[in-house]
């Protein structure tokens, strides 16, 4: 079982956690699992992200793409897990899943929802710096790096938690004029995304995120865009001007 290095959750957490961000998402915790609530956009994103993750898992671990449990026997860490929207499907894919989050409210909701779903998922209220556990086969962190105080320290922490032959998958908005218009002016302005969720200046370009991963000893093996198609809705794309996913392994 995972444990926390600093049980007091004191200054070490300041390396990556912004308390204002944790408070913002904690206020949304009770609606996290409502597909029509404040996290509605995440519910639309999740199936697309899961298709990407499943493909990356099958490729990296050489799984049968028809298999139901490709993560069986694999240890999985989801960082910035919220109320468990990604942790639960990863557990259903057979993973031994640990989810960590900076907001205690999210962890409480995640634990309750997992119990109701009959899933054995370990949830911890902590930051990546404090997690005293290593060797995860899969490390995921989706829509999180743009909310941390120190992206370099955060990425280094993710890399430190991963097994030598493990897989890391990240997603984040790109810092473009299009993302500012779509996610902040339109998304937050029209109430499709909770107001104050994003700070465009903290968005990372693919080159910037790649550089952080390289500094942490990682190598990017794939990058794909997430775009809104008028006919299909959110879909994987070669266009990364809105949002993108990154797969990385040890360099």
Task: Tell me what the structure shows.
The structure is a single chain. The chain has seven helices and eight strands. It is 33% helix and 24% strand. The model is unreliable at 1-14 (pLDDT under 50). It has helices at 19-27, 40-61, 87-92, 104-117, 151-161, 177-188, 206-215; strands at 75-79, 96-101, 122-125, 136-142, 162-173, 218-229, 233-237, 243-250. It has 251 residues and is of the alpha/beta class. Strands 3-2-1-4-5-8-6-7 form an eight-stranded mixed beta sheet.
What's the helix and strand layout?
Blueprint: H1 19-27, H2 40-61, E1 75-79, H3 87-92, E2 96-101, H4 104-117, E3 122-125, E4 136-142, H5 151-161, E5 162-173, H6 177-188, H7 206-215, E6 218-229, E7 233-237, E8 243-250
Parallel strand pairs: 1-2, 1-4, 2-3, 4-5
Antiparallel strand pairs: 5-8, 6-7, 6-8
Strand line-up in the sheet with most strands: 3-2-1-4-5-8-6-7
Number of helices: 7
Identify low-pLDDT runs: 1-14
Describe the main β-sheet briefly. 8 strands, mixed
Q: What fraction of residues sit in β-strands? A: 15-25%
How many extended strands? 8
Shape: globular
| Helix-strand string | HHEHEHEEHEHHEEE
Distance between the termini: 28 Å
Quick structural summary:
The protein has an 8-stranded mixed β-sheet with strand order 3-2-1-4-5-8-6-7.
Name the descriptors:
single chain, 251 residues, eight-stranded mixed sheet, 7 helices, globular, disordered N terminus
């Amino acid at each position: 079982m995972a444990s926390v290095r600093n049980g007091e959750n004191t200054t070490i957490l300041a390396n990556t956690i912004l308390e204002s961000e944790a408070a913002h998402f904690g206020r949304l915790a009770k609606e996290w699992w409502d597909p029509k609530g404040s996290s509605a956009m995440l519910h639309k994103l999740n199936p697309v992200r899961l298709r990407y993750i499943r493909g990356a898992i099958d490729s990296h671990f050489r799984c049968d793409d028809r298999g139901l449990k490709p993560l069986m026997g694999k240890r999985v860490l989801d960082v910035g897990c919220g109320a468990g929207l990604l942790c639960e499907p990863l557990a259903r894919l057979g993973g031994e899943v640990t989810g960590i989050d900076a907001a205690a409210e999210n962890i409480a909701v995640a634990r309750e929802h997992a119990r109701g779903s009959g899933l054995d998922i370990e949830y911890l209220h902590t930051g990546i710096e404090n997690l005293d556990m290593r060797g995860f086969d899969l490390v995921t962190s989706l829509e999180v790096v743009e909310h941390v105080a120190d992206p370099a320290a955060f990425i280094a922490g993710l890399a430190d938690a991963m097994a030598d032959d493990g897989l890391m998958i990240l997603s984040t908005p790109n810092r473009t004029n299009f993302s500012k218009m779509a996610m902040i002016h339109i998304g937050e302005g029209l109430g499709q995304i909770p107001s104050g969720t994003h700070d465009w200046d903290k968005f990372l370009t693919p080159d910037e995120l790649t550089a952080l991963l390289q500094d942490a000893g990682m190598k990017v093996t794939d990058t794909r865009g997430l775009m809104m198609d008028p006919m299909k809705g959110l879909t994987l794309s070669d266009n990364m001007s809105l949002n993108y996913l990154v797969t990385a392994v040890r360099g």
